[in-house]
Amino acid sequence: MAMDAISVKALEMVAREYDARLGPTLLAPWISHTIDAAHVKPGDQVLDVACGPGELTLQTARRTGAAGHVTGLDLNPGMLALARTKSSHITWLEGDAETLPFADNQFDAVICQFGLMLFPDPAKALREMYRVVAHHRHLVVAVFGDLAEQPVYRALAEIYDDVVSDTMGNLLRVPFSMGSADRLNRVFSSAGIHDTEHVRLEEAAIFASLKELALADIEGWFPFAGVTLTPAQVEAVIAEVQSGLAPFQRADGTIHFPVSVHLVTATKRTASEAHRPLAI
């Protein structure tokens, strides 16, 4: 049954908070890395899977230019409602990454930034994304590094364990759950994708204050995941963050810390090319 307009509007409000609080601080630094890894060129047809509020999609469209076209696909109608307000020249499509409604070899590049760890069956989603990318072109997937590589978020998860519940702490761990090279390699291998290049990158995440760092998850990530905290829980978490993470705060009150990301680029070959080098 189609979702009613009121429900979509509520999801769009959640998407706006997610976009405002997590987009500039945690997601935007990786946009150019993802587009570059996909070798996107003017005139290309590109698919952005799990496009969310569409910032990566928009930047990709600028790279393809008027001669190309970009499609953004997401399962969340609220994210798409927000994305549609940003551009009418992009095709915004509600759909499931595990059953893509596209022909084989349809796109010159397929990109997926911070979505793989949220799919029920990551290997199935990878097979679908690989299916629709053209031969000799690229599928690029970005995931956050393991929580062991993210001291600030590791500390935040432990705060939620102690102040709210293990359930909330584990929910904060979800975005980092695909972040080991071994696990990524296993997932790609189980999807039948073997011609890959794997790099680990770091960029700085910058928040205006410790309170803003806490609110990024309280008002951005958790509502997106369908969970809200009580006012008392919010107050307790912010107090604990301001105390426990004070060593990460600079003299001007801002928070700067490195965030690691794993970027996997898969080159699609024909069967006859599978065992010989491919010129790119």
UniProtKB/TrEMBL annotation:
Pfam families: Ubie_methyltran. GO terms for biological process: methylation. The keyword Transferase applies. Gene3D superfamilies: Vaccinia Virus protein VP39 (3.40.50.150). InterPro entries: SAM-dependent_MTases_sf. The keyword Methyltransferase applies. GO terms for molecular function: methyltransferase activity. It comes from the Bacteria. Keywords: Methyltransferase, Transferase. PANTHER family: 2-METHOXY-6-POLYPRENYL-1,4-BENZOQUINOL METHYLASE, MITOCHONDRIAL (PTHR43591:SF24), METHYLTRANSFERASE (PTHR43591). This is Methyltransferase type 11.
